[in-house]
Each structure stands twice: as structure tokens, then as C-alpha cells.
Amino acid sequence: MKKTAILASAILFASCAVQTTETIVCDSSVSDYTASVREALANHPDGNITLEFEPGRYDFYPETASEQYLRISNNDNGLKRIIFNLNGMNNVSVRGNGAEFVFHGAEIPFSVKDCNNITLEGFSIDYEDHFTMEGEVIANDPAEKSFTLRLLDDEKYTITDGDFRFCGYNWESALGENIVFDKATRSPYYYTSAYEHWTAHRFNAVELEKGVVKFSNLYSREVPPVGSIWVDKGRHSLNRYCPALALTDSKDIVIKDVHVYHSGAMALIAQCCENISLDGYSTAQKEGSPRMITASADATHFVDCKGGITMENCRFESMLDDATNVHQTYMLVKRLLGDKSFAASFGHFQQEGNRFADKGDVLRFVDKTSLRPIGTARIASVDRVNDNWYEFELDTDIPEIANPYDVAVENISRGTSNVVIRNCTVRYNRARSLLLSTPGDVLVENCDFASMMAGIRICGDANYWFEAGETKNIVVRGNHFQDLGIGGHSPQAVLQIDPVIPKEARTNDYYYHRNIVFENNTVDTFDCQIVYAIGVENLAIRNNVFNDSHSYEPIYPGLSVIDLQYCGRVDISGNDFSGWKKDATVSIHSCADLNTDTALPVIDKPNPFFFEN
Q1: Interval 77-96: pLDDT, tens
Q2: Nearest-angstrom CA–CA distance, 599 and 579
């Protein structure tokens, strides 16, 4: 292998350091480029370097990778082997020129931590052994509750006393979370929840011939259809170990023309970062691949970030979770330690170790049931005793709290990102398209959405995922939505605004979200409900075209096309329902001020599924 260092021509940064370029040449005699990358970065500990790759395939193995314990929100914490380990570096570029980066084993391709001015451009990320098991159903027996899979040719597995495990270079996984995909559409199967196996009932696996395995002891409503694709990503809490791009406490990151063909967790996770730009990023399947799945979790995920998040010209496809989720975090108050101090813990285990807050940040206390604010205070000091016990000293008295166990706390100095999502495609994935919970300005325009669940979900809860983020200004305009909500677990709206507030705590004198506009969109879908909203102060649904696609039978017939509850000012005007279902209604329950020109009957019949959450 040749490696040359070339002095870049007068490229200066704010640090006044000169940028050095190291060119890594593709050499067929080199089987592992891990040490080359590690050494190049080690020679420039402060950064100011461009790693330039010639076109070609570059393989990376974990044996000589650097190692670090990473706390990665919404993924699995742990001691990780890292290939491109950017830690405390500024002004770093990795330019692939179309290079293919192939990773072997349980390793993190990129960790960017405490860095500024990072550019990742022009390469793909793939794993030799995928962290999802896939196989085509070639037989089933409803009476016996069994089915037979023909596994993909490259699938590695073992069977011991009926226990099936799929394997990789230095790992193996038991079966766990599963879903059925439609081979023809490459999307989750219509009403795929009917085939979901309860993992507490272990399969009994028998190899009929190499690559053909019969599974019995199926615990689901129906057996998977012959010709469908069964997908399994392993046990919950153990299957988010290897995100492809992990960004932490970093600023000014540009990711351009980067294609994540596979990851063993989220394709991209950013926590406590500022200013991230994605252009031409994708999780689309590699051309010619027989696989259904790319990322085993979200395509992108942003936790407690601020500044700007921009996603343009991106393809979010074939992942097993959302295209993006932008949110803040709730911690739970556990103990009052004094008039100005308290202890808090995370509500969800995959948030533990999150930085959450620093001295000088402002915390807001909220009732965790109603999500109503109780008061705010500034942090004088933080003691992170361990990953799940933080002690805060405030510069003023704690707001009056009757019972600390009823209270959550959020950091309103973080998670304030302004978001622009433009000219993007979301399809072939389990779960939703976009989850947006940020008080910053949000614009979603000129995108195509075709996810298994909701299109745009705007939530907030302090009881399950503990993802905060009341919104102040969201505009969703000029987009196309096609056949969402095919999963069947529960009704899924195209626009779903559902802060998790139980029925008895909902009123129309407090609104968790504000100023949401859904306009000039085209919706072609088969089920009955398009907009569902609770607790929005100002909501405009105008100049949209709603068409019945007739692609499938409705899963939840009879629901109103628009269902609004406990909202403030509502404008439903200029919408075209001429291609929609003939018996459609609009349901309005306890909303303060309604302006509508719709000819559809306006009734008070809230969605009984969502109404109870």
C-alpha cells in the first residue's frame, strides 16, 4: 500500500493551522485498512487533516481498532471498537471519491466526539455480515403454527438443541424482534402486525437442508404468508450496538453523498451537537442486493441538538425505524435534596449517560402526566454521580412540587434546533417517516413519504420514551404521502400530533404544541384517518388534496378523516375531498375556535383508539 502526505495549498481555518492531506490508495494486496486510518488520525491529534481515499473497496476489521466506552442515546451503550475515531479534533475531512467502506464484525465505522468543522463526503458504509436475519417463507402450516424459511445465501447461523442464532465475524444473536416484508413492494407486509411473534415463546428450529430452516412454536395471530420475507434483528435492548455514524458534543458537521447500506443500530445518531447538514445522504439498499433491510433502527436521530439541522436530497429507505426523530429529553425527578437541589434519573434505559445539561443551562419542571410546566430554574452545578443518577444545584429555589415522583424535567437550553427537510424520500421502512419535537422553526417541503406507520408525528411524552419537545412553528407543505399506516398495530394518521397526555388530563386551556401548518400536500392513502391532533394552539389544514388510493382495505374503517381534540384556533379550508371516501366526516372535540369551509359533516366522535392512548 502507498500512503502519501500532500500539503494542501493554503487552506487555512480559524485556528490558523494548515490543512494536511493524506491520500490512502486502494491496494488489492491490503486486506485490512484499520491500522492505516488509526495511524493517520493519531498523527494529527488536533485535526487539520483530510483523509482522501482513491475509489475502490476498503475493508476494516476490529482487531487493531481503537477502543472507547461510548454512551450513545437511543442506542446501546458499551465498549466499542471504532474505525474512524475522531475525538477532540477540528477541521477534519474524510473524502471517499466513491470509495466503498466494508466493515467486519461488531464495530463502529465513525465516532465524532468533541469535534468542530467535520466533513464526511463521497463514500458508502456496509458490513460483510448484516445484523439482521432475512429469509423467504417457502412453506407454512397454520394448524401447526410453523413456517419454513429459505435464508439468504450469505446468512450465517447455528442451531443448537432447536435454538437458532444468526452470526457474524465476531458476534452472534438470538432471535428477537421480527417483522414480515412484502417481496414485491419491498415494504412491510399489509397488516404485518398479524405475523409478529412474541419473543417470550422461543422458536424450535430444525434445519431441513443447508439454508432451509423450519421454525415451530410460532406465537402470532397468523403464520407468515408464503413468498413473504421474514426479518429478525435480535433481542430488544441488545440489537442497537453498532450505529454507523455516532456524533456527540460536536459542531458544524457536513455529511454529503454518504450512503449507509447497513448498520447494526441507527445509521446516524447525533446527540448534543450543533449545526448538522446532510445532502445526498441515504440508507437506500445497495443496487442488486436481495436484502430488504439497511439500518436496523432509525436512518437519522437527533437528541438535544441545537443550531440548524438540514436534510436535503436524502433517501431514507429500508430501515427498521424512523427516517428521523428530532427531540429533547425528559429526566424524572427522584429526590429533593434541599431547597435548591434535587436528584434525577432517566426514564428510558437507552438514555442513560446522556450529557443532558451543563452549568448555566435552564431547566423546566413539568407535570409528567399533563406535561404542564411548573417552573424554570438555572443550573448552578451538575454532579453526574453515575450514568443514571444526576444531582443538580440550582441558582434559585426549586419550584413548588407536591410530589417529586409526579415531575419530569427538561433542558430548554438544548434541543432547540431549527430543522429544514427538503426534497427527500422516505419509503420501504418500518415505523414512521418523521418525528419532529423541537421548539425551533421546522420546514418540511417537497418530500415523498410512504412509511408503515405515521407520516409526520409530533409527540412528546414523559412516561415511555421520555422524549420532550413542545413545538412552536412547524410548516409541512408541498409533500406527497402514499399509503401510510399499513402496519395494523393501531391507527396511524398521515399527520399525527399526539402528546402522551391521558384523557382525564386533557383540557383546552393548555396547549403542548403551537403553530402547525399542513398545506398544499397531496395524500393518496387507503385508510380512513389523515389528520389526528391533540393539544395544538394554532393548527391550519388547508389547500390539501385527499385521495382514496384503494390500495388496500381500510384497517380502521369509520374513523373521521380529520380528528381534532382540545385544540385552540383551527383552520380547515381550501382542501379537496372530491377523491376521498364518500362517507367521510370531520370530528371536532372541545376545540376553542374552528374556521372551516368543508362540506363534510362536522361531528364530535373522537378516535377511540388514540383517545385513550
Answers
A1: 999 999 999 999 999 999 99
A2: 13
Q: What value does the mean pLDDT take over residues 414-436?
A: 97
Confidence (pTM): 0.96
For residue 420, count other CB atoms closer than 10 A to its CB.
Answer: 15
For residues 344 and 368, is the Cβ–Cβ distance under 8 A? Answer: no
In this prediction, residue 609 has a pLDDT band, given cuts at 50, 70 and 90, of: confident
Query: Is 192 strand, coil or helix?
Result: helix
Ranges of beta strands (E only) in 224-298 are 229-232, 245-248, 251-260, 268-271, 274-279
For residue 310, the SS3 value is: strand
Measured CA to CA, the distance from residue 484 to residue 548 in angstroms comes to: 12
303 forms beta bridges with 271, 327
- Cβ atoms of residues 84 and 42 within 8 Å: no
Q: Strand pairing of 516-519 and 473-477?
A: parallel
List phi, psi (to 5°) of 37.
Answer: -70, -45
Confidence of residue 435 (pLDDT cuts 50, 70, 90): very high
- Residue 256: how many CB atoms within 10 A of its CB? 16
Distances from the Cα of 94 to the Cαs of 20, 246, 283, in angstroms? 12, 15, 19
pLDDT, position 17 = 63
Identify the DSSP state of 445.
E
Listed in sequence order, the residues at least 6 apart from 301 whose beta carbon sits closer than 8 Å to its beta carbon are 73, 74, 266, 268, 269, 270, 322, 324, 325
